[in-house]
């Protein structure tokens, strides 16, 4: 809240979301005001107080119980808001204003003259909470009737990495069911030097989970992971290469070998013998005609990715292969390389 004596919790809040500042109107041209007497100063101050009083009263008349403003306001306006019993929050970013409007069902108002009861947002509870050793303050807007927005707040800590994957997985499940808009709020504790790296890693993990959920919403087709899709595609490309006459078949076989790089990397990163493991899984796929067989990275005891419930989106897999192919085509178009030593 903008004033320390304003209430820290507001129930059944009606929120006025403003992008207009609590300040007197300013001329658009260059101007100069000469005040040489006390009477002129009192007249100027009285006019400013009248402007502030009119703005606050307009917010009260439409039934607002909380004002959230994109801009700041001076101490006189702040004091007047406190005396009139109208809590206010200032210096709220434009992105945050949009998310608040989505969550509360309100409208962003650019002028006080356009403020009406229909444009007020509604929330069951708005509260201010202090946390951490630095007593940082955050505003919670809860129990919104039409909320499809959520804020994930992450604070750095030594045990953060232990909960990283669990948080990303739980967030993936939650997003796929309920969430449409998301804003990430990240806070760093300067006392812990490793926190910045942990926060960034958590941010990337949550972003990856969001992208997976978004892809599933767009297209719910999936392929099984563990390199099973790449191995199956590699076998299909090798079979197609046998039907191509001439030297072009070598380019097709090279594409199949490139697809094998993914399962081979998975096997190597899991501490397995990459060549032996890839050869065994390939042979098993051909023998059983099962395209779901991949690299058992977690040493569960089965190579069937369907049983392990390891999968990824089809749209993501197609995009990966497409982008990799485009990169190779760009590199092949380079017919000369100029190195600095040549000059």
TrEMBL record:
Top-level taxon of origin: Eukaryota
Name this polypeptide is given: T-complex protein 1 subunit epsilon
Source organism (scientific name): Taxus chinensis (Chinese yew)
Compartments where found: Cytoplasm
GO cellular component entries: chaperonin-containing T-complex
Matches recorded under InterPro entries: Chaperone_TCP-1 (IPR017998), Cpn60/GroEL/TCP-1 (IPR002423), GroEL-like_apical_dom_sf (IPR027409), GROEL-like_equatorial_sf (IPR027413), TCP-1-like_intermed_sf (IPR027410)
Predominant cellular place of this UniProt entry's protein: cytoplasm
Phylogenetic classification of the source organism: Eukaryota, Viridiplantae, Streptophyta, Embryophyta, Tracheophyta
Molecular functions per Gene Ontology: ATP binding; ATP-dependent protein folding chaperone
Record family assignment: Belongs to the TCP-1 chaperonin family.
Keyword Plastid part of the UniProt annotation: no
Keywords: ATP-binding, Chaperone, Cytoplasm, Nucleotide-binding
């Amino acid at each position: 809240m903008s004033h320390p004596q304003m209430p820290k919790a507001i129930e059944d809040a009606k929120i006025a979301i403003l992008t207009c500042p609590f300040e007197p109107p300013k001329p658009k041209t260059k101007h100069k005001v000469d005040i040489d007497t006390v009477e002129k100063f009192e007249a100027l101050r009285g006019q400013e107080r009248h402007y502030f009083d009119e703005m606050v009263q307009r917010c009260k008349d439409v039934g607002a119980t909380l004002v959230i403003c994109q801009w700041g306001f001076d101490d006189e306006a702040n004091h007047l808001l406190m005396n009139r019993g109208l809590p206010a929050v200032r210096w709220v970013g434009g992105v945050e204003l949009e998310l608040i409007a989505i969550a509360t069902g309100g409208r962003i108002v650019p002028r006080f003259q356009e403020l009406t009861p229909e444009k007020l947002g509604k929330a069951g509870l708005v509260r201010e909470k202090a946390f951490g050793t630095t007593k940082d303050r955050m505003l919670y807007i809860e129990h919104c009737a039409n909320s499809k927005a959520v804020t994930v707040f992450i604070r750095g800590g030594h045990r953060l990495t232990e909960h990283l994957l669990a948080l990303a997985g739980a967030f993936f499940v939650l997003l796929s069911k309920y969430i449409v808009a998301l804003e990430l709020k990240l806070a760093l504790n300067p006392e812990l030097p490793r926190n910045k790296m942990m926060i960034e890693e958590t941010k990337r993990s949550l972003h990856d989970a969001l992208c997976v959920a978004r892809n599933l919403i767009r297209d719910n087709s999936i392929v099984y992971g563990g390199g099973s899709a790449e191995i199956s595609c590699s076998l299909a490309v090798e079979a197609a290469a046998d039907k191509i006459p001439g030297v072009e078949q070598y380019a097709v076989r090279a594409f199949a070998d490139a697809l094998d790089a993914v399962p081979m990397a998975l096997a190597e990163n899991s501490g397995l013998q990459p060549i032996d493991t890839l050869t065994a899984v390939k042979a098993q796929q051909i023998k059983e005609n099962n395209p779901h067989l991949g690299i058992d990275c977690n040493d569960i005891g089965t190579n069937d990715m369907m049983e392990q419930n390891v999968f990824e989106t089809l749209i993501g897999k197609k995009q990966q292969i497409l982008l990799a192919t485009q990169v190779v085509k760009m590199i092949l178009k380079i017919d000369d390389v100029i190195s600095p030593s040549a000059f």
